[in-house]
Amino acid sequence: MRETDIKPIPKYILNQIRKADNKNYPNPDGHVRCYAYLTTWKNELVKVTVAVKNRYKKWYCKQVAVHGLNSKKCFVKDMEYCYCASMGFRFGWYEEGLQKCENWYERGWCWADDKYYDPYAELINPNFIDRLPEFKYSAYKLFQGCDIFKYLRLYRQYPQIEMLMKLGFTSIAMSATILKRCGTDKAFCKWLISNKALLQSRHYYIDVIVRAYKTKKSLEQLQSYKEAKLRLIHDSSLAPIKELFKGKDLERFFDYMLKQQTNQNTYLDYLKACQNLGLDMTEDKNRFPHDFKRWHDIRIDQYATKKAIEDEEKHKELYIQFAAVAEKYLSLQHAKRSAFVCIIAKSPADLIREGEALHHCVGRMNYEQRMVREESLIFFIRNKQEPNTPFVTVEYSISQKKVLQCYGEHDHKPNEDVLHYVNKVWLPYANRTLKQIAA
Predict the structure, then answer these.
(1) 327 and 430 co-located in one domain
(2) In this structure, are residues 79 and 64 in contact, taking their beta carbons and an 8 Å threshold?
(3) How far apart are the first and last CA of the chain?
């Protein structure tokens, strides 16, 4: 491919580009867009990319890149890579008279690496490939990507891509790993066909597909392993789990998570509580408790109790003041004719336990100071059948006589039944009682 081979845009191609552009942009706003067309130079398939722009009610179109199917280099003109541009490229229009100064990259045709300087461009004449006997059976029309040359180069190297495309494996057909195995392992091809519905139902990682074939394990199970492992790698907050489970133990851990129907963040809470309590996490009874939910709640409660006792030792005066305020407003508690009860927090330790159990900030953020200053009161909403199980936390303003916050686990909004109880049953009762206390 030589610069002397570059010919002007044929008129019939120019008409096709303009027709497509009018359809895509009936009201152009002046920004640049790209199109591409196929042709042949000395028996080599070539893709020519053009840039299109409207200015002063005039339509401009010019060639900016030429890629050859057999070439590792491409020709580029009046185009520069720019990460902040809308297309990732910016174009010079000095030759067309649309700018006063010539950009440094407007120096005629020059060489560039084939994998760069290839902006996304709608292909105007894909059926041109039908003229080439080499690609008669390539199934290129089933390819939905933007880089048609990448597909055709793979077809040259791995003709089995045609089979995969026609069988509907468009999502994995572009993988060289899959193509190589299909070319050497007939059993793998049969396995793909037998699992076609599952493979087309969602995206699977290529290494997951190969491993499922080799081990005969479930695709779903191996995919969940992969996703969980990636979360461990990329989420720095999960580092304690990554340090505890390594090698084969990691897969055992993922199996355990699936069986116990829990997640890594919940296990992390359990792990931190166990470590704080001084438990030996190399023992399976601690790493993999038989009933995870039960032992999670036990360890979290033990940890919160320990933390509360330690906190109480450090802040005895605060605990005395807090208890006095709680005693003063004890009559705002409510347990009448409802599925719920409302209990006032009686110590900062209660706030710590509530925050640890429900994973919100009531045990931190100085709520105990607000209560000591009688700015706001903290109440716990409980199911009447489980009065000791943390459920919903309420912050009540004494001066404004209204609920400031009402949240359940992980700061989630409670259901309508709870909100009705808090706002329509307990709040009016609390305001009436507050008046009596003031009197």
Answers:
(1) yes
(2) yes
(3) 96
The DSSP output letter for 423 is I
Whether residue 222 lies inside any domain: the answer is no
Instruction: Kindly give the interhelix angle for 148-157 and 176-184, rounded to the nearest 10 degrees.
Output: 20
Confidence of residue 225 (pLDDT cuts 50, 70, 90): confident
Flag whether 411 is in a domain: yes
Residue 310 has pLDDT above 90, yes or no: no
Q: Are residues 197 and 236 in the same domain?
A: no
Whether the Cβ atoms of residue 254 and residue 238 lie closer than 8 Å to each other = no
pLDDT above 90: residue 145: no
pLDDT reported for residue 308: 80
Task: Check residue 85 and give its pLDDT.
Answer: 62
Q: Say if residue 348 is in the same domain as residue 412.
A: yes
Domain check: are 296 and 320 in the same one? no
Q: What pLDDT is recorded for position 72?
A: 84
Q: Hey, how many other C-beta atoms are within 10 angstroms of the C-beta on 30?
A: 9
Collapse the DSSP code of 40 into the 3-class scheme (helix H, G, I; strand E, B; otherwise coil) and give the result.
strand
**Under DSSP, is residue 325 helix (H, G, I), strand (E, B) or coil?**
helix
Query: Is residue 247 domain-resident?
Result: yes
- pLDDT at residue number 86: 64
Residue 107 pLDDT: 85
Structural domain ending residue among the three candidates 305, 329, 347: 305
- Domain, as residue range, for 430: 315-438
CA 192-195-201 angle, 5° bins: 115
Q: Are the C-beta atoms of 347 and 312 separated by less than 8 Å?
A: yes
Q: Do 372 and 299 belong together in one domain? A: no
Question: Does 47 map to a domain?
Answer: yes
Q: List CB contacts of 313: < 8 A, sequence separation 6 or more.
A: none
Shared domain check, 433 and 319: yes
pLDDT in tens, 276-298: 999 999 999 999 999 999 999 99
Nearest Cα residue to 353 out of 314, 395, 411, 303: 303
For residues 267 and 257, what is the distance between their CA atoms, to the nearest angstrom?
A: 8
Pair of tokens at residue 432: 């009436």
Q: Which residue has the tokens 């392992």?
A: 185
Give residue 427's pLDDT band: very low, low, confident or very high (50, 70, 90): very high
Number of domains composing the chain: 4
* pLDDT, tens only, 92-142: 999 998 988 999 989 889 988 887 788 889 999 999 999 999 999 999 999
Alpha helices in 171-263 (DSSP H): 176-184, 186-194, 196-201, 206-215, 219-234, 239-244, 248-260
Q: Are residues 85 and 151 in the same domain?
A: no
Beta-bridged to residue 378, according to DSSP, are 395
Amino acid identity of 364? R
Q: What is the pLDDT of residue 55?
A: 87
